[in-house]
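> run fold DNA-binding transcriptional regulator, GntR family
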Amino acid sequence: MAVRALAQNIANEISLLITAGELEPGQPVRTQALADRFGVSRSPVREALVTLAEQGVLEQIENRGFFVKDGASELVVEPVSDEAKPFEIANEYQQLAEDWLKDRIPGEVTEMMLRERYDLTKAQLGDILMRAVREGWAERKQGYGWRFLPVAKTPEAFEQIYRFRMLIEPAAMLEPEFKLDRTIIEEQRRIQQRMLDTDIEKLPAERLLHNGALFHEELIKMSNNPFFHMSLVRVNRMRRLLEYRSRVDRSRTVRQCEEHLVILDLLERGEIVEASYAMRRHLGGALSKKSPVAWSWSHAAEEKT
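> ok
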Protein backbone atom coordinates (compact mmCIF):
# COMPACT_ATOMS: atom_id res chain seq x y z
CA MET A 1 0.00 0.00 0.00
CA ALA A 2 1.39 3.40 -0.99
CA VAL A 3 2.21 5.70 1.89
CA ARG A 4 1.02 9.27 1.56
CA ALA A 5 3.73 11.94 1.44
CA LEU A 6 2.83 13.40 4.85
CA ALA A 7 2.90 9.98 6.53
CA GLN A 8 6.26 9.21 4.90
CA ASN A 9 7.68 12.52 6.10
CA ILE A 10 6.50 11.73 9.62
CA ALA A 11 8.01 8.24 9.38
CA ASN A 12 11.31 9.89 8.43
CA GLU A 13 11.08 12.26 11.39
CA ILE A 14 10.36 9.38 13.80
CA SER A 15 13.32 7.51 12.36
CA LEU A 16 15.55 10.49 13.09
CA LEU A 17 14.27 10.64 16.67
CA ILE A 18 15.30 7.00 17.06
CA THR A 19 18.71 7.57 15.49
CA ALA A 20 19.30 10.64 17.67
CA GLY A 21 18.50 8.60 20.77
CA GLU A 22 15.35 10.55 21.69
CA LEU A 23 13.39 7.30 21.27
CA GLU A 24 15.26 4.33 22.73
CA PRO A 25 14.83 0.54 22.30
CA GLY A 26 11.79 -0.71 24.16
CA GLN A 27 10.31 2.76 24.54
CA PRO A 28 6.63 3.18 23.61
CA VAL A 29 5.85 5.48 20.70
CA ARG A 30 2.71 7.47 21.49
CA THR A 31 0.52 8.47 18.56
CA GLN A 32 -1.03 11.52 20.22
CA ALA A 33 2.31 12.83 21.49
CA LEU A 34 3.77 12.65 17.99
CA ALA A 35 0.68 14.25 16.47
CA ASP A 36 1.04 17.15 18.89
CA ARG A 37 4.77 17.42 18.19
CA PHE A 38 4.37 17.53 14.40
CA GLY A 39 1.17 19.58 14.38
CA VAL A 40 -0.89 16.97 12.51
CA SER A 41 -3.81 14.66 13.17
CA ARG A 42 -3.40 11.15 14.54
CA SER A 43 -4.20 9.49 11.20
CA PRO A 44 -0.93 10.22 9.30
CA VAL A 45 1.06 9.47 12.45
CA ARG A 46 -0.54 6.06 12.77
CA GLU A 47 0.10 5.42 9.08
CA ALA A 48 3.75 6.31 9.65
CA LEU A 49 3.96 3.98 12.65
CA VAL A 50 2.49 1.10 10.67
CA THR A 51 5.02 1.75 7.91
CA LEU A 52 7.92 1.67 10.38
CA ALA A 53 6.56 -1.52 11.91
CA GLU A 54 6.49 -3.13 8.46
CA GLN A 55 10.11 -2.06 8.01
CA GLY A 56 11.13 -3.67 11.30
CA VAL A 57 11.96 -0.40 13.03
CA LEU A 58 9.01 -0.59 15.42
CA GLU A 59 7.15 -3.47 17.01
CA GLN A 60 3.37 -3.35 17.11
CA ILE A 61 1.89 -5.17 20.11
CA GLU A 62 -1.84 -5.79 20.10
CA ASN A 63 -3.75 -3.66 22.59
CA ARG A 64 -0.52 -1.98 23.72
CA GLY A 65 0.68 0.07 20.75
CA PHE A 66 4.06 0.59 19.09
CA PHE A 67 7.52 0.16 20.62
CA VAL A 68 11.04 0.85 19.37
CA LYS A 69 12.77 -2.41 18.48
CA ASP A 70 16.30 -3.32 19.51
CA GLY A 71 18.77 -2.30 16.81
CA ALA A 72 16.25 0.08 15.22
CA SER A 73 18.76 2.91 14.97
CA GLU A 74 20.84 0.82 12.59
CA LEU A 75 17.94 0.49 10.17
CA VAL A 76 16.65 3.99 9.72
CA VAL A 77 19.32 6.42 8.52
CA GLU A 78 22.05 5.83 5.99
CA PRO A 79 25.36 7.75 6.30
CA VAL A 80 25.02 11.25 4.90
CA SER A 81 27.65 12.33 2.37
CA ASP A 82 29.13 15.79 2.70
CA GLU A 83 28.31 16.18 -0.97
CA ALA A 84 24.61 15.75 -0.24
CA LYS A 85 22.30 18.70 -0.66
CA PRO A 86 22.34 20.84 2.50
CA PHE A 87 18.58 21.33 2.52
CA GLU A 88 16.94 18.08 1.47
CA ILE A 89 13.31 19.01 0.95
CA ALA A 90 10.66 18.66 -1.70
CA ASN A 91 11.08 20.92 -4.73
CA GLU A 92 7.87 22.78 -4.02
CA TYR A 93 8.82 23.40 -0.39
CA GLN A 94 12.24 24.60 -1.47
CA GLN A 95 10.70 26.98 -3.98
CA LEU A 96 8.30 28.39 -1.37
CA ALA A 97 11.15 28.91 1.08
CA GLU A 98 13.28 30.52 -1.63
CA ASP A 99 10.47 32.87 -2.62
CA TRP A 100 9.92 33.93 1.00
CA LEU A 101 13.64 34.49 1.60
CA LYS A 102 13.83 36.70 -1.50
CA ASP A 103 10.58 38.62 -0.86
CA ARG A 104 8.89 37.26 -3.98
CA ILE A 105 5.69 36.54 -2.04
CA PRO A 106 3.85 38.65 0.56
CA GLY A 107 3.88 37.93 4.26
CA GLU A 108 0.19 37.00 4.29
CA VAL A 109 -1.25 34.66 1.68
CA THR A 110 -4.25 32.48 0.94
CA GLU A 111 -4.11 28.78 0.18
CA MET A 112 -5.70 29.44 -3.22
CA MET A 113 -2.93 31.89 -4.10
CA LEU A 114 -0.24 29.35 -3.16
CA ARG A 115 -1.97 26.48 -4.96
CA GLU A 116 -2.18 28.50 -8.16
CA ARG A 117 1.38 29.82 -7.91
CA TYR A 118 2.98 26.40 -7.33
CA ASP A 119 0.40 24.23 -9.12
CA LEU A 120 -0.36 22.11 -6.04
CA THR A 121 -3.27 20.06 -4.84
CA LYS A 122 -4.85 20.93 -1.50
CA ALA A 123 -3.19 17.90 0.13
CA GLN A 124 0.24 18.75 -1.30
CA LEU A 125 0.03 22.32 -0.10
CA GLY A 126 -1.12 21.14 3.32
CA ASP A 127 1.98 18.95 3.66
CA ILE A 128 4.25 21.84 2.65
CA LEU A 129 2.65 24.34 5.02
CA MET A 130 2.80 21.87 7.91
CA ARG A 131 6.51 21.48 7.25
CA ALA A 132 6.91 25.26 7.31
CA VAL A 133 5.01 25.38 10.61
CA ARG A 134 7.32 22.76 12.12
CA GLU A 135 10.35 24.71 10.91
CA GLY A 136 8.99 27.80 12.64
CA TRP A 137 8.46 30.23 9.76
CA ALA A 138 4.73 29.94 9.02
CA GLU A 139 1.52 29.99 10.99
CA ARG A 140 -2.18 29.81 10.20
CA LYS A 141 -4.04 33.08 10.59
CA GLN A 142 -7.16 33.20 12.68
CA GLY A 143 -10.06 32.65 10.36
CA TYR A 144 -8.52 32.55 6.89
CA GLY A 145 -5.12 32.37 5.24
CA TRP A 146 -1.52 31.96 6.32
CA ARG A 147 1.20 34.23 7.67
CA PHE A 148 4.93 33.82 7.02
CA LEU A 149 7.01 34.83 10.01
CA PRO A 150 10.11 37.07 10.06
CA VAL A 151 13.32 35.19 9.38
CA ALA A 152 16.96 36.15 9.03
CA LYS A 153 17.07 36.80 5.29
CA THR A 154 20.40 38.62 5.10
CA PRO A 155 23.93 38.08 6.41
CA GLU A 156 23.53 41.26 8.45
CA ALA A 157 20.43 39.90 10.21
CA PHE A 158 22.19 36.58 10.76
CA GLU A 159 25.09 38.35 12.49
CA GLN A 160 22.76 40.52 14.57
CA ILE A 161 21.01 37.40 15.86
CA TYR A 162 24.31 35.87 16.93
CA ARG A 163 25.36 39.09 18.66
CA PHE A 164 22.03 39.12 20.49
CA ARG A 165 22.62 35.54 21.59
CA MET A 166 26.11 36.48 22.79
CA LEU A 167 24.41 38.92 25.16
CA ILE A 168 21.51 36.87 26.50
CA GLU A 169 22.88 33.32 26.75
CA PRO A 170 25.91 34.07 28.96
CA ALA A 171 23.81 36.54 30.98
CA ALA A 172 21.11 33.91 31.57
CA MET A 173 23.62 31.81 33.51
CA LEU A 174 24.21 34.74 35.86
CA GLU A 175 20.55 35.35 36.64
CA PRO A 176 19.74 35.34 40.40
CA GLU A 177 17.26 32.50 39.89
CA PHE A 178 19.62 30.34 37.80
CA LYS A 179 19.52 26.77 39.08
CA LEU A 180 21.23 23.68 37.72
CA ASP A 181 18.88 21.03 36.38
CA ARG A 182 20.69 17.69 36.44
CA THR A 183 18.12 16.13 34.12
CA ILE A 184 18.81 18.73 31.42
CA ILE A 185 22.57 18.42 31.85
CA GLU A 186 22.54 14.62 31.67
CA GLU A 187 20.23 14.54 28.65
CA GLN A 188 22.24 17.12 26.74
CA ARG A 189 25.47 15.35 27.60
CA ARG A 190 24.01 12.13 26.21
CA ILE A 191 22.90 13.83 22.98
CA GLN A 192 26.20 15.66 22.45
CA GLN A 193 28.32 12.60 23.20
CA ARG A 194 26.22 10.45 20.89
CA MET A 195 26.69 13.00 18.12
CA LEU A 196 30.45 12.82 18.60
CA ASP A 197 30.45 9.03 18.69
CA THR A 198 28.25 8.33 15.68
CA ASP A 199 25.62 10.89 14.71
CA ILE A 200 27.68 13.64 13.08
CA GLU A 201 28.57 11.36 10.20
CA LYS A 202 25.16 9.75 9.76
CA LEU A 203 22.49 12.33 10.58
CA PRO A 204 21.09 14.78 8.01
CA ALA A 205 22.25 18.39 8.36
CA GLU A 206 18.79 19.44 9.51
CA ARG A 207 18.92 17.15 12.55
CA LEU A 208 22.44 18.30 13.48
CA LEU A 209 21.26 21.90 13.45
CA HIS A 210 18.20 20.96 15.50
CA ASN A 211 20.34 19.28 18.16
CA GLY A 212 22.60 22.31 18.33
CA ALA A 213 19.69 24.69 18.84
CA LEU A 214 18.11 22.36 21.40
CA PHE A 215 21.30 22.41 23.50
CA HIS A 216 21.16 26.19 23.86
CA GLU A 217 17.40 26.34 24.40
CA GLU A 218 17.52 23.71 27.14
CA LEU A 219 20.42 25.36 28.98
CA ILE A 220 18.80 28.79 28.97
CA LYS A 221 15.74 27.29 30.70
CA MET A 222 17.85 26.93 33.84
CA SER A 223 17.83 30.73 34.22
CA ASN A 224 14.22 30.32 35.38
CA ASN A 225 13.52 33.54 33.52
CA PRO A 226 10.98 32.59 30.84
CA PHE A 227 11.74 35.69 28.79
CA PHE A 228 15.28 34.50 28.11
CA HIS A 229 13.96 31.19 26.82
CA MET A 230 11.17 32.75 24.77
CA SER A 231 13.61 35.18 23.16
CA LEU A 232 16.10 32.48 22.23
CA VAL A 233 13.46 30.20 20.75
CA ARG A 234 12.17 33.11 18.70
CA VAL A 235 15.52 34.14 17.24
CA ASN A 236 16.48 30.52 16.58
CA ARG A 237 13.39 30.19 14.45
CA MET A 238 14.26 33.39 12.63
CA ARG A 239 17.74 32.16 11.68
CA ARG A 240 16.87 28.53 11.01
CA LEU A 241 15.66 28.80 7.43
CA LEU A 242 18.75 30.65 6.22
CA GLU A 243 21.09 28.41 8.21
CA TYR A 244 19.51 25.26 6.77
CA ARG A 245 20.33 26.57 3.31
CA SER A 246 24.05 26.71 4.07
CA ARG A 247 26.32 23.69 3.84
CA VAL A 248 26.95 22.13 7.24
CA ASP A 249 30.62 21.64 8.01
CA ARG A 250 30.65 18.35 9.89
CA SER A 251 34.22 18.83 11.11
CA ARG A 252 33.16 22.12 12.70
CA THR A 253 30.18 20.38 14.26
CA VAL A 254 32.64 18.10 16.05
CA ARG A 255 34.29 21.14 17.59
CA GLN A 256 30.95 22.62 18.60
CA CYS A 257 29.93 19.41 20.35
CA GLU A 258 33.24 19.35 22.21
CA GLU A 259 32.66 22.93 23.35
CA HIS A 260 29.13 22.04 24.43
CA LEU A 261 30.53 19.26 26.61
CA VAL A 262 33.06 21.66 28.17
CA ILE A 263 30.22 24.03 29.11
CA LEU A 264 28.28 21.13 30.63
CA ASP A 265 31.36 20.10 32.65
CA LEU A 266 31.74 23.62 34.03
CA LEU A 267 28.07 23.80 34.98
CA GLU A 268 28.15 20.42 36.64
CA ARG A 269 31.12 21.49 38.76
CA GLY A 270 29.25 24.62 39.80
CA GLU A 271 31.65 26.93 37.94
CA ILE A 272 28.83 29.10 36.65
CA VAL A 273 30.80 32.27 35.88
CA GLU A 274 33.37 30.23 33.94
CA ALA A 275 30.53 28.52 32.05
CA SER A 276 29.11 31.94 31.16
CA TYR A 277 32.46 33.05 29.73
CA ALA A 278 32.79 29.75 27.86
CA MET A 279 29.33 30.24 26.34
CA ARG A 280 30.23 33.71 25.07
CA ARG A 281 33.47 32.41 23.52
CA HIS A 282 31.56 29.52 21.98
CA LEU A 283 28.96 31.78 20.35
CA GLY A 284 31.62 34.25 19.21
CA GLY A 285 33.53 31.45 17.53
CA ALA A 286 30.35 30.13 15.90
CA LEU A 287 29.60 33.59 14.51
CA SER A 288 33.05 34.03 13.01
CA LYS A 289 32.86 30.64 11.33
CA LYS A 290 29.21 30.51 10.32
CA SER A 291 28.82 33.99 8.92
CA PRO A 292 31.02 33.41 5.85
CA VAL A 293 28.94 30.34 5.04
CA ALA A 294 25.72 32.32 5.17
CA TRP A 295 27.31 35.20 3.28
CA SER A 296 28.58 32.98 0.49
CA TRP A 297 25.22 31.30 0.11
CA SER A 298 23.42 34.62 0.05
CA HIS A 299 25.69 36.09 -2.61
CA ALA A 300 25.54 32.91 -4.68
CA ALA A 301 21.75 32.95 -4.48
CA GLU A 302 21.62 36.57 -5.59
CA GLU A 303 23.79 35.80 -8.60
CA LYS A 304 21.26 33.21 -9.76
CA THR A 305 18.33 35.63 -9.71
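The chain has three domains: 5-76, 91-148, 155-304.
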